[in-house]
C-alpha cells in the first residue's frame, strides 16, 4: 500500500513534528503534498490559538 504524503504531513503536524522534517525529496510532488498537509493542520492550530488571545 502506498503511503499518502498529504496524510503523513497532517499526522506530523498533529504530532508537533516541524515542517523541516519533511521526509520527501525537495522539489518532488510528495514533498509538496506533505507540506500542504502539514500546513493544513498547523495553520488550523495557529488560527485557534489566535482566537483565544
Give the helix proportion (percent range).
55-70%
Number of strands: 0
Sequence of secondary-structure elements: HH
Overall shape: elongated
Helix-strand makeup class: mainly alpha
| Uncertain runs | none
Folded structure, characterized:
This protein is an all-alpha fold and 53 residues long. It has one domain (5-51). It is 62% helix and 0% strand. It is built from 2 helices and no strands. The protein has helices spanning 5-14, 29-51. α1 (5-14) packs parallel to α2 (29-51). The radius of gyration is 12 Å and the shape is elongated. The mean pLDDT is 89.
In brief:
By secondary structure, the protein is mainly α. The protein has two helices and no strands. It has helices at about 5-15, 30-50.
Question: Which SSEs are present, and which pair or pack?
Answer:
Elements: H1 5-14, H2 29-51
Provide the descriptors you would attach to this structure in a database record:
single chain; 2 helices; elongated; 53 residues; 62% helix; mainly alpha
